[in-house]
């Protein structure tokens, strides 16, 4: 007779444990479903952020930011025809007095081709103690380890305004 109440007592806990396990499994499955429905960051937006990142780095003379947003094999062609690699560009922008006050993009289009993106835009460039000027820019970005970086930059001068 003593066994029967113990068996009943154990069986009373069984539904409670099963309910707790069911709840935990349901919560886990719900978390998995919700996390899988969260979409990955939009590559176009990430490229736009990289474009804003390197220009902000240039204005602030921030070599670390420039290093983050410029690819190791960067080829940078200025509107005046001067070309620089990554090291030359970063050195020119970060040494000495500030060169740039601002870069303002307009009419920007970004096309994504897998891990490569092409950015076209107008860019109003304001240099320190100089008049603003507008360029048409073509920039190519590559995704390196989850970070979009500019690998090619080409500008064509459109005149001063």
Please characterize this protein's 3D structure.
By secondary structure, this protein is an alpha+beta fold. The chain folds into two domains: 1-38; 43-160, Roll (Nuclear Transport Factor 2, Chain: A). It has four helices and six strands. The protein has helices at 3-37, 43-59, 63-69, 86-94, and strands at residues 70-77, 83-85, 100-113, 116-127, 133-144, 147-160. The chain has a six-stranded mixed sheet. It is globular. The model is unreliable at 28-39 (pLDDT under 50).
**Biggest sheet: strand arrangement:** 2-1-6-5-4-3
- Total domain count: 2
Rg, rounded, reads 28 Å
Low-confidence segments:
28-39
Total number of β-strand segments? Answer: 6
- Helix/strand/pairing category: alpha+beta
Largest sheet entry: 6 strands, mixed
CATH top level of the largest domain? Alpha Beta
Shape: globular
Short description, anyone?
The chain is α+β, with helices and mostly antiparallel strands. The protein is 42% helix and 39% strand.
């Amino acid at each position: 007779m003593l066994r029967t109440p113990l068996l009943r007592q154990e069986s009373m806990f069984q539904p409670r444990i099963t309910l707790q396990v069911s709840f935990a499994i349901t919560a886990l499955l719900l978390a998995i479903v919700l996390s899988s429905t969260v979409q990955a960051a939009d590559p176009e937006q990430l490229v736009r952020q990289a474009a804003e990142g390197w220009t902000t780095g240039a204005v602030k003379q921030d070599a670390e930011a420039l290093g983050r947003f410029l690819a190791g094999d960067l080829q940078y062609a200025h509107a005046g025809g001067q070309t620089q690699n990554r090291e030359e560009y970063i050195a020119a922008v970060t040494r000495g007095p500030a060169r740039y006050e601002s870069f303002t993009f307009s009419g920007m289009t970004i096309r994504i081709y897998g891990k490569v993106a092409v950015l076209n835009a107008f860019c109003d460039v304001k240099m320190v103690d100089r008049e603003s000027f507008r360029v048409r820019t073509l920039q190519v970005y590559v995704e390196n380890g989850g970070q979009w970086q500019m690998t090619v930059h080409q500008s064509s001068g459109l005149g001063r305004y």
